[in-house]
Structures are given as structure tokens and as C-alpha cells.
Amino acid sequence: MTILVLAEHDHKAVKKATLNAVAAARKIGGDIDVLVAGHQAGEAAKAAAQIAGVRKVLQADAPQLADFLAENVSSLIVSLAKSYSHILAPSTSNGKNVMPRVAALLDVQQISDIVAVESPDTFVRPIYAGTPSCARSTPATRSPP
After folding, report:
1. How far is CA 4 from CA 26, 67, 86, 117, in A?
2. How far is CA 131 from CA 24, 83, 116, in A?
3. pTM of the predicted protein model
4. CA distance 12 to 15
5. Is domain 2-112 given the CATH code 3.40.50.1000 in the classification?
6. What is d(CA 4, CA 6) in angstroms, rounded to the nearest whole number?
7. Closest by Cα among 128, 136, 134, 72 to 105
């Protein structure tokens, strides 16, 4: 089982929210790859390589990735998705913009805003304005893109 984590960065450093996503990936278990998508974001890729538990950093460097537009980043993630059992992103405005598109293109359900990992297919997320939480399971398989 290999997990892809989309890095949130400012082209120089990885943001703290990425560390939270990597921590969730560690709880799922398996190898963790981090995708640094951007333009001239080599410093962020170097920082991502220093995160504990990261097996490999994938750096996608292109002018069209500079502004982290959801259309461009989601297409990139979908092109990589076959190699991964899970795809995670920080629960930020960028992650919430990109991941629904990725889920739609892959024809899988998205589980957003998780607060705990119970197993590789069961996650806890807040419901009803965040007061109670529920465990949510997802199918172990997905249809090919």
C-alpha cells in the first residue's frame, strides 16, 4: 500500500498542514510519497524530503502549476493515481479545491476533514457543525480512471 500526499507549500517551504496529512498517512500505514506541485519549488521539495516517514518526493515543476490552480493540479494527481491506494491533501482551501475534482475524475468518494484514522478504510470526521463525530468507511477498491 502506497499513499500519495499533496504538499501545501509557498515554493520555498512546506506548510504545517502538510505535516498533518503525512501524520494521517503514517497512521494508515504503508509507503508515503509526497507530491510537490509548483513552479521553481525546489526548496519546498527539499523540505518535503526531510519529513519523517516520507519514502519519496515527486516534484512537478511547470509554469502552469505556479498558481496551484485546481484544474492543473487535479489533472496531475489523476495521472499519478494508479500507483496509490490513498491520496491525501491538507484540509486547507487548496486541498478542498483540488481533491473534489480528483475524486470526481477518479470516480471515487472523497472523505474530507478527517480528524482520526481508525484503519486504512475507516476515518473519523466531524459532523453537524463539528460537535459530534462519526466514523466513515470507504470501499477498499475503486474503478480504474
Report:
1. 11, 21, 6, 16
2. 21, 36, 15
3. 0.90
4. 10
5. no
6. 7
7. 72
Cα–Cα nearest to 11, from 79, 77, 81, 94 = 94
Give the domain ranges of the chain: 2-112
Q: What is the C-alpha separation between 53 and 103, in angstroms, rounded?
A: 25
Residue 40: all three cell numbers together? 521553481
Q: Which residues contact 98 (CB under 8 A, 6 or more apart)?
A: 6, 68, 70, 73, 74, 77, 89
Per residue in 86-131, pLDDT tens?
999 999 999 999 999 999 999 998 998 989 999 998 899 888 877 7
Can you say whether the dihedral through the CA atoms of 84, 80, 32, 102 is positive or negative?
negative
DSSP output for 67-92? T--HHHHHHHHHHHGGG-SEEE--SS
Comparing 59-63, 89-93, 97-101, 133-137, which segment has the lowest mean pLDDT? 133-137
**CA–CA gap between residue 109 and residue 100 (Å, rounded):** 9
Q: Residue 19 corresponds to which cell in the numbers above? A: 505535516
